[in-house]
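Memo to structure team: turn this sequence into structure tokens by end of day. - J.P.
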Amino acid sequence: MDDQANSDGIGFGVDIGGSGIKGARADLVAGDLASERHKILTPQPATPDAVVAVITEIVSTAGWTQPFGCTFPGIVRHGVLHSAANLDPAWIGVNLEQLASEATGVPVAALNDADAAGLAEARFGAAKGRDGVVIIVTLGTGIGTAVLVDGHLLPNSELGHLLMHGRSAEKYAAASVRQRKNLSWEQWGGRLQEYFSHLEFLFSPDVFIIGGGVSRKSEKFLPYIDVEAEIIPAELQNQAGIVGAAVVAAERFGATPPVG
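Reply from structure team:
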């Protein structure tokens, strides 16, 4: 039985990534995890049925029986997927909210993974109280982005897919590229410099916030990025997606005031 629900300030979020799917209870007041994360490697191929089976296992293992939030690394509009760059193309056109709800038996709120991280940073972290244009960039298997203007979200920005050197920027500068090509931090920092200079030219943000697991090592690569905007690491790091998803679900299904 689930002994913690939205009404007690606790929610649940599932964060789908290209390499792993993780979920946990989230403290909707403090903006932190309220339980240990349960992580399962993303199935290969990452088809809808295979991924939803993992989501169901994570929720079931946690004993969660309330509505929950779920992120996805792609464009999410009204619960329906319109891109799936790092998962399976079979996702395109699928209603993730409906599929996950049918599998788990509870309502589900789905949103872009970087948007979830951005909302979490706006509510609890490095973007809290910041006016102007804030761009959160999550560096992982791909590159996710969230754009906030005076705290309000522009959803599904997907700026990791801007073209660089004739290909998607995330194929050139994601954290996974550094690992795969065995780039030094300085070499990777040079690629990030190109990417962030391009973003700055297009959007003139007041601040960049760097998220994803690699943000814990920001001192190793941020010195190689020189832009006019302030550039700082995220505060919630790689738990931001879980927290943001839990907050959005709580808002939609009734528990907390809106974000963004």
